[in-house]
């Protein structure tokens, strides 16, 4: 049954993304970048809802009160990364537009990448390390001044359930350079949507939003160490089975 559900969901995503992406490309020439974002977020909402209807995946969110309340209050969101699910969910649940930091190669993905290219986000060339980070800071400041929150996955890539990747300091370096707080977020998506897996399982994905951590007067590495400690401790609390000795991942 899980295989059939997963197949139906993939087909549904493929069928809906093509007309939606083409629509985004066309209308992006006539509407503001903010409106383009919310048009794209509407498809992500469809993707998340279909994940609930077809796959049986539900979100259980806590800590929304920890998000900045002002319409222009800046923030850098640093999120645990176990699957594609959180990349879909975050724009759906957040009250502000988000700007992902991602490698520019994703812009070449048919349809999905074409729509991403029409949004005001931060795509970088990882081979140009110092210039790439300068672009992140420059564009990140501009976007946050407009009320857009920057979102990054500090581990850089998806990790298996119960595992921890290497937390890189790009997100905290941006926060320190811009003088804005970071918000750590733990997500147990690997419980239902394992890394690189075709077959998904019904269940609950816990999303826990931590309190903002000020960046003023901090060093990027020790700030990231605090973010890492909070996220990983929260992951153990939310999904203790994944961290039990001998637990399958």
- The oligomerization state is single chain
Q: Could you please say which CATH topology applies here?
A: Glycerol-3-phosphate (1)-acyltransferase
Q: Structural class, please?
A: alpha/beta
CA-CA gap between termini: 21 Å
Mean pLDDT across the residues is: 92
Beta content comes to 5-15%
**So how many helices?**
8
Polypeptide structure, described:
With 249 residues, this protein is α/β, with parallel strands linked by helices. It has a single domain, classed as Glycerol-3-phosphate (1)-acyltransferase, CATH 3.40.1130. It contains 8 helices and 7 strands. A 7-stranded mixed sheet has the order 1-7-6-2-5-3-4, with helices on both faces. The longest helix has 26 residues.
Keywords:
Glycerol-3-phosphate (1)-acyltransferase, alpha/beta, seven-stranded mixed beta sheet, 249 residues, 45% helix
In short:
With 249 residues, this protein is α/β, with parallel strands linked by helices. It has a single domain, classed as 3-Layer(aba) Sandwich (Glycerol-3-phosphate (1)-acyltransferase), CATH 3.40.1130. Helices cover 45% and strands 14% of the residues.
């Amino acid at each position: 049954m899980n295989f059939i559900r997963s197949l139906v969901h993939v087909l549904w995503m493929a069928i809906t993304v093509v007309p939606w992406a083409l629509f985004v490309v066309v209308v992006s020439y006539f509407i503001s970048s903010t409106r383009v974002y919310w048009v794209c977020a509407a498809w992500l909402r469809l993707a998340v809802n279909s994940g609930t209807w077809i796959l049986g995946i539900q979100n259980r969110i806590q800590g929304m009160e920890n998000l900045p309340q002002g319409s222009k209050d800046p923030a850098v969101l640093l999120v645990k990364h176990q699957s594609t699910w959180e990349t879909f969910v975050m724009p759906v649940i957040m009250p502000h537009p988000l700007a992902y930091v991602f490698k520019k190669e994703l812009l070449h993905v048919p349809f999905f990448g074409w729509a991403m290219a029409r949004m005001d986000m931060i795509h970088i060339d990882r081979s140009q390390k110092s210039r790439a980070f300068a672009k992140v800071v420059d564009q990140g400041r501009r976007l946050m001044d407009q009320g857009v929150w920057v979102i990054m996955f500090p581990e850089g890539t998806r990790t298996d359930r119960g595992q921890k990747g290497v937390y890189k300091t790009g997100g905290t370096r941006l926060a320190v350079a811009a003088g804005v707080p970071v918000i750590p977020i733990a997500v147990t998506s690997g419980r239902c949507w394992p890394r690189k897996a075709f077959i998904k399982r019904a269940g609950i994905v816990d999303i826990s939003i931590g309190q903002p951590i000020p960046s003023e007067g901090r060093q990027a590495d020790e700030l990231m160490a605090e973010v890492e400690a909070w996220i990983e401790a929260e992951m153990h609390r939310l999904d203790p089975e994944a961290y039990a000795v001998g637990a399958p991942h």
